[in-house]
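Hey,

The postdoc asked me to send both predictions to you directly instead of through the lab channel. I've kept everything plain text so nothing gets mangled by the mail client. Protein one:
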Amino acid sequence: MTGNPNCQIWLTSALTESDVPKALTLCFSLKRVLTCRKVGVITSRQLPSHLIESLRQGFEYLFFLEDGRNSAGLKEQDFIKLFPLTLKPFEMCVFLSPTMLAVQNCDKIFEECCSQRFSGYLLTEGTGMDVFVIKPSPRVFENLMKVLVETNGLGTENYIRAWVDTNNEACKLLTSNYNLILSAQSLPQSGGEKDVLIVNTRNLRLDMNIEELGLFTKVPAFQK
């Protein structure tokens, strides 16, 4: 059981000007490894129009944060972690931080969730919620927002994690091959790169040539 690929989507975010080239590079890397799913981006209407147009050119779907739905007054960085719940046309979304890059085709993350009849809220690895799978549900969204209104939105990420921990029959942790924290000092051991599907570049210097790290050869870089 693999679900319907047309109802499954990769998501990332581009809320600031500096996020745009990162999000586009992630998008290009997913397409380079021949994903069968569409790729969407959550963004803000506050971005300059030329950057919004760049996002339109790169992504199949563009979603603007709706302030009216943010009844808890969350910061945008917190709200984007709940926003995919509202995307009811889709049966499953995989959210990736804009610092992530696909090294190999990683569509099997959708297939694994479907084969296990994943019915939970999200899967996540490590801290920061850089990778998570979410099953859209307006009902769950409204319930979470009510709780966060009562707590003034404090500790949003901790609350989500606690919710997942108490519903662990419907959730599972992602293995590190979906979220390898990449740095010049901590590369995988020789041969280990064959198991790596998605890498996290948040610890890399801006001027570092990612091709020199040896995990892939042609992830296109978006130039400002």
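Protein two:
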Amino acid sequence: MNRRLAQHSAVAALGVLTALTFAAAPARAAEITCAPDPHEIDDPALGVGDPVVTASIAVGGTASRAICQTRDPLPGKHAPQDVDYIGFTATQGQAYTVDLVAAGSGLTDPFVGFLKLNDDGSTTSAVQSSAYDGRHSTTVPLDAGRYAILVADGSQEGYPDHVLGTKTIQGEAGTYTVKLSASAPPPVLKSVKITPNPVKGGDSATATLTFTGPILPGGTTAPLSSSNAFVAGGAGSLFAPEGATTLRIPIRTGRVSQDTPVTFSAWVTGVGPTLSTQLTVRR
């Protein structure tokens, strides 16, 4: 779960990294071919200078490229991981979904997302709900302007010298196809309710999270935090599967010497408001 939750923040992190400068690794001999991708070598997200968007996609259409990477930067690249940008123009107030509709055998931990291409050449993460499996992402309604679909793979592998590094992906094994669609915005949290409330310390309760619509393909996470986990805390899964309109999370409580209020807050990862409710744990 922790690894996947970390992946949900990867799109935002990559947007920040574009503002940093990385020293280019010395060129080295490499029997690596990026032939399936006519746009290589670009690597805008982890490189230096302004983003480079040489591929584009039409709304309702598809685009095919390839991830080409190894544990050390390839000649002409600035980082081991290959991160692709595919540009498109958004219409004011429209939400969009990107789906990874095909992936080569080398892409074992792929993820897609959206970035805003700013006028100064920087990028920022668009507000979006990313699927738990990394293969889908849906934005909130966007402002008009230029955006990019981001595609990368987070896989790592162990090498013979016992180094764990970026997985080597090359040739047809790295090919993929993404589809861009105009869509409804992702569902957000509508309400959070805990029953029974109040509850006697040592007994259990249940938090029910209700969404504004069915959870999108690939599922998502809906974290539930407690202001005092020693008195009362969530004990169930935070994963909301595709199609779910509610998520029920068991809450365990401890014995208390006096009635104690505990605030629970919940949200849908990446989008929407944080809603809170209070549970009273009685002595």
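Summary for protein two, as requested: The chain has two domains: 2-183, 189-282.

Thanks,
C.
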